[in-house]
Amino acid sequence: MPFRLPPSRWPIWNGWKFSNKFLKPTTLIIYIQDLKREAVTPEKLKTLIKGEKDKKLPELLKIYQAYQKAIAERGRYDFEDMINLVIEAFAKNKNLLTTYQERLQYFLIDEYQDTNSGQNQVINLLARFWGQEANVFVVGDPSQSIYRFQGASLENAIEFTKTYPKAKVIALEQNYRSHQIILDAAHDLIQKNKLKIEDVVPTAKARLQSPTQSPAGLKIKPASIN
């Protein structure tokens, strides 16, 4: 069953002496969750931090290893593990992976802008069986990516076009939710982003249009953002 305790109640904290003031239970849970959402296991983290001078990274690795050991001994897993355990099972058991690759032939992912690296790895592992002919259909708006705290990022959408170069990009330009004045204000704001999807995928560029007229007298003052 999923394992979720307040950080202060984690059994591995008992008697642990933190040598770095930045490594506390309240921040460690965030670090470990972020690592798992990027599908970074303790073994992978150990490789990634080789040569790094940041002294808190080796201690973070030890705590991450201790945490995984503690929940494994209790027959538990946390919410982020539900994705990573699937990736691990597919890596260890090729027959299991092949079984699901043959069974699942069509993939539809909605709100793709909110996916994280771990979730993308599961999709790519399953679709890889079909190569560039994989039937993968994703729907999303990278400009609406608001789940960064869960590992979502614009880079995931960009990576999709690299993984599936034959994918056809369809930019939707009609918006039925908002008045044009709101769409224009949002567009002007988004243009200030340092990285936009159209910078890498030109065919994804779209200027939303609304079929409804804005109420008379409605004005929006542009925000000043540096």
UniProtKB/TrEMBL annotation:
GO terms, biological process: recombinational repair
Record keywords, A-Z: ATP-binding, Helicase, Hydrolase, Nucleotide-binding
Annotated UvrD-like helicase ATP-binding domain residues: 1-179
GO cellular component annotations of the record: cytosol; DNA helicase complex
Molecular function (Gene Ontology), one example: ATP binding
One Pfam family linked to the record: UvrD-helicase
Superkingdom to which the source organism belongs: Bacteria
Region listing for Disordered, in residue ranges: 206-226
InterPro entries the UniProt entry points to: DExx_box_DNA_helicase_dom_sf, DNA_helicase_UvrD/REP, P-loop_NTPase, UvrD-like_ATP-bd
Name of protein: UvrD/REP helicase
Species whose genome carries this gene: Candidatus Beckwithbacteria bacterium GW2011_GWC2_47_9
